[in-house]
């Protein structure tokens, strides 16, 4: 099959490309960075260098494809996250319909249906193709955003924002605490990007006419359990994840000079997770859990942590 993978050589797209090439599919990887071309080709794939903000480029890249994996990288320079997501989603829809691609796998999030103003899934309803919306939990790789803050490098007494799909927190290097309006004993689905890649690969080659939603997870833990696993791996077993009120979270984000509308969206996302509704939806769909546990990832995280 001729398959197109967006997301360059990111945490999901690289292992996804490796899986698809191993299965002897013809794979094209879209990247905005020309420096990635050599690495993409080394994996056995072709590189298409351009921007997903360019509809003409996308249309050319999708020409003749049997299936496309479509993801939209989060932008933290955009003051209105929802507007940005909808704009890029519309680019995808236009290019996919023009090229008559029959199978599309869209990266979404496990709170997507609960954040109506930011639900990019709605933008794909006009696709003339079968679609699977991937709804993964909170990525293990989000913890990489914490390295400097866990070490307290120049952050004594300072609250800074952390970012990534479904995982927003505040961390103070002075006390070794994770903080957010989702935290403490709230139960979260965590997931390895490698397990997501396996699931996406399965969906891409499933040439069904049905549109579906697929939840993806690797392990269910409380926020404090996850913090303790990561903390133990780096020699800080006291690491805690403190639950803040929505108001305190919003104030912290504003202090960190996060644009107001974006800050409100981040608080809404965490509030949805704190409500437990995403977890209910996850279990209602009876997804098969992946194989990579947080303790496995924590060893990988610790190596990176101690190298910095």
From TrEMBL:
InterPro entries given in the database record: Ergot_Alk_Oxidoreductase, NAD(P)-bd_dom, NAD(P)-bd_dom_sf
The protein's name: Uncharacterized conserved protein YbjT, contains NAD(P)-binding and DUF2867 domains
Record-annotated NAD(P)-binding domain positions: 7-113
Pfam families: NAD_binding_10
């Amino acid at each position: 099959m001729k398959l197109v993978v967006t997301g360059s050589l990111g945490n999901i797209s690289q292992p996804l490309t490796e899986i698809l090439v191993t299965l002897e599919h013809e794979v094209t990887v879209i990247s905005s960075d020309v420096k990635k071309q050599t690495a993409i080709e080394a994996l056995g794939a072709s590189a298409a260098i351009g921007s997903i903000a360019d509809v003409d480029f996308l249309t050319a890249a999708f020409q003749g494809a049997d299936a496309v994996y479509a993801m939209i990288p989060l932008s933290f320079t955009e003051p209105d996250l929802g507007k940005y997501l909808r704009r890029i989603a519309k680019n995808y829809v236009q290019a996919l319909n023009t090229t008559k691609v029959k199978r599309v796998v869209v990266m979404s999030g496990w709170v997507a249906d609960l954040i109506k103003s930011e639900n990019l899934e709605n933008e794909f309803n006009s696709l003339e193709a079968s679609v699977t919306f991937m709804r993964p939990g909170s990525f293990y790789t989000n913890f990489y955003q914490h390295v400097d803050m866990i070490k307290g490098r120049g952050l004594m007494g300072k609250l800074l924002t952390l970012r990534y799909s479904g995982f927003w927190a505040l961390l103070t290097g002075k006390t070794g605490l994770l903080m957010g309006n989702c935290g403490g004993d709230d139960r979260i689905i965590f997931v390895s990007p490698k397990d997501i890649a396996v699931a996406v690969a399965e969906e891409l080659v499933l040439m069904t006419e049905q549109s579906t939603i697929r939840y993806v997870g690797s392990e269910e833990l409380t926020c404090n359990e996850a913090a303790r696993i990561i903390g133990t791996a780096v020699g800080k077993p006291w690491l805690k994840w403190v639950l803040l009120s929505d108001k305190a979270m919003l104030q912290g984000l504003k202090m960190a000079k996060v644009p107001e509308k974006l800050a409100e969206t981040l608080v809404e996302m965490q509030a949805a997770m704190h409500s437990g509704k995403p977890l209910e939806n996850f279990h209602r769909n009876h997804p098969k859990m992946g194989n990579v546990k947080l303790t496995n990832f924590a060893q990988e995280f610790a190596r990176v942590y101690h190298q910095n």
